[in-house]
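To illustrate this point, what follows is a protein record of this kind.

___
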Amino acid sequence: MLLSAELANEIEMELDMRRVSPMKVLIAVALVMATALNAWADTEDPKVCVENAVNGIIKVLEAREDSSRLTEGDRDKIRKVVAGRFDYREMSKRSLAQAWGDISETERVNFTELFRKLLERSYGNRLAGFRDQKVTFNDAQFKGDKARVITSVVDAEKTTPVEYRLHQTPTGWQVYDIKIEGVSLVSNFRKDFQEGIKQNGGFAGLVQALEKKVRNLEEKDNA
């Protein structure tokens, strides 16, 4: 992924876009844009965590002056709405799999930040396509220090299940994976990253390719 012309095309469908249309990834994208931790995070149960983030994102999208695009101001508002509800480090760790254990702590910190930027830029523009979808939330299902919240995204065409996987952290419940119609975000990235590491001679090559992809996306968004 991102490591050749063919893989560059593949990253645009991190959630297997051949099966899931951009409109259906709205809710998955919403949580992917989190950044900092908020003081209220440890007071939310998993369902409330997901509800507040998703409904907050929808509110920002509905308030846009230009509904055809996502501005930097819109992105900033979305980051603030969902701050602290997404665990980028855990997602990065699971996506890199064995490679995570082979890199230093500094490399892990830097990769986690790069991963956040990649997610935001890869999916951010898809939020611009939001058109009055409705979302319903089921109660959380618990298993130890983990939970899942299944939601349904409803539009004129169909109802799409979106499942959030969360775990308990010192700052509250945070999302570490998202499944749309059974397709795992983490599993897709793991497959792509493993392929990228092989094609680019190791972890350093993967990082260089991802950095280039993020720069290209930023330039495209600011054009």
